[in-house]
Write a structure and sequence with these properties.
Length: 453
């Protein structure tokens, strides 16, 4: 097609460029499953370039588990449009709609697919195709991962979510225990009922039982005259997450044990038991077994809850998840703040080296800060927080990988660290110059480079 050909007012190169830069992925195959075209959205979905994908077949991608489930074969057989929710290798859930294009003999000549992420509750053409790897369809419970460890955990979590067995989710603060519990709820037969997360550590000790189980009117001084429905009752029919369950006092643990075993409880100030149908998921960042040995956690409750234990490893133990999380958070906050931010390869390398003691929660906050404070589309080394360049621990931890950075990059990063730290403390170029023993002209130049750029 010549470049002077017009398509609804666009010349062909312009029209093609528009399709190439759509947010939704456009994916076109021939009648032999061969990929003829995919737009630039493939980088977000698969971490691969167009050149790396075009020419391969959809069967190749399915065998390599780039996504699942695959429905091209039945679509070719049925000769009709198909749609399904699929889960990509990085854990992202997408909605894929495939439309067959027929030749003059009514045979499929091409298939064009639209692949959309961040899907909400969208009706599908054929909702009988489901994915056992689904991890939820809303922004609030989306969990992004690529590591084998997390795939294994989510596969097991999805499997046990189909039954009402109690379980304990363990892992450091910020790894996503609540997200996993929410995923289990949404994958369970209880998904249309409430999911009630309770942070046990945040409940005042004197009010724990009344908050959990409710109370009768006038049960104690200051109680509501109409009484109060407890969190357990609010979760009736659904799922109750007891996060940081290790913080519950032994008296409350006894009542929890009774409620789990007998499916009933007695509100504060009442004498009649209340029946309840609720699934219990516990979560903790401590070793409950050690607390049992110390006498701080009931042994019978521990064994009653610990039918299945799901351990989420810290982010520093599964660094292959970090690039996908960074990409996801950049997209999330770019949309939220109506901007567009990407990250340089060198800056990403620094994020990969960071220990992330706060895990995914810490990474999410760092990315939000970078999106808000960066004045350039591409976030570089010089814009990373000072904490990313902490000398204590970081240098020793990553000495072996120092060859990944050139001498100039190392010195520039450290120079930026010194300037930003001094400017945060002294606020003026004159005082920064005095502190670092520089000329004010040079200090001003470096502040423009590392702070105000």
């Amino acid at each position: 097609m010549g470049e002077d050909k017009k398509i609804y007012g666009f010349d062909f190169p312009t029209f093609f460029n528009l399709i190439d830069n759509m947010y939704d992925e456009i994916y076109i195959t021939d009648n032999n499953y061969k990929l003829l075209y995919v737009n630039k959205a493939c980088a977000r979905h698969y971490g691969a370039t167009q050149d790396e994908m075009i020419g391969k077949t959809s069967l190749d991608f399915s065998r390599e588990e780039w996504w699942g489930p695959s429905f091209l074969t039945p679509m070719y057989e049925d000769k009709k449009a198909y749609g399904a929710r699929q889960t990509l290798a990085n854990g992202m859930e997408v909605l894929t709609i495939a439309i067959p294009i027929f030749d003059k003999d009514n045979n499929i000549e091409y298939v064009i697919m639209n692949v959309r992420d961040d899907v909400k509750e969208i009706d599908l053409y054929n909702d009988q195709i489901d994915s056992e790897f689904s991890i939820g369809s809303t922004q609030s419970n989306k969990y992004i991962f690529k590591s084998k460890a997390m795939k294994k955990i989510y596969s097991l979590a999805t499997k046990i979510s189909k039954v009402d067995a109690t379980c304990i989710i363990t892992g450091e603060t910020g790894v996503g225990k609540t997200h996993l519990a929410n995923h289990m709820h949404l994958s369970s037969p209880r998904k249309d009922k409430p999911f009630i997360p309770v942070n046990c550590a945040s409940l005042p000790s004197e009010l724990i039982e009344s908050e959990l189980f409710g109370y009768a009117k006038g049960a104690f001084t200051g109680a509501s005259h109409s009484g109060k429905k407890g969190l357990v009752s609010m979760a009736d029919g659904g799922t109750l997450l007891l996060d940081e369950i290790s913080e519950l006092p032994l008296s409350a643990q006894a009542k929890i044990l009774h409620m789990v075993q007998e499916k009933e409880f007695i509100p504060v100030g009442e004498t009649t038991p209340v029946k309840v149908d609720v699934r219990i998921i516990a979560a903790t960042n401590k070793s409950l077994k050690s607390l049992v040995e110390l006498g701080h956690f009931r042994e019978d409750l521990y064994y009653r809850l610990n039918v299945v234990e799901l351990y989420i490893p810290p982010l520093r133990k599964r660094t292959e998840d970090i690039p996908h999380l960074v990409s996801h958070f950049l997209s999330e906050f770019s949309d939220k703040y109506n901007t567009n931010r990407q990250i340089s390869d060198r800056a990403l390398e620094v994020l990969l080296r960071h220990e992330w003691r706060g895990n995914i929660r810490e990474l999410r906050h760092v990315i939000e800060r970078l999106v808000l404070t960066s004045d350039t589309v591409v976030i570089g080394l010089n814009q990373l927080p000072i904490s990313m360049f902490s000398i204590e621990g970081q240098a020793e931890q990553h000495d072996e990988d120092d060859e990944d950075f050139s001498f100039d990059e190392k010195t520039s990063a450290y120079e930026g660290y010194l300037i930003r730290k001094a400017y945060e403390k002294y606020k003026t170029s004159r005082k920064v110059a005095e502190h670092l023993q520089l000329s004010q002209t040079r200090a001003s130049k470096l502040i423009r480079k590392y702070v105000k750029n």
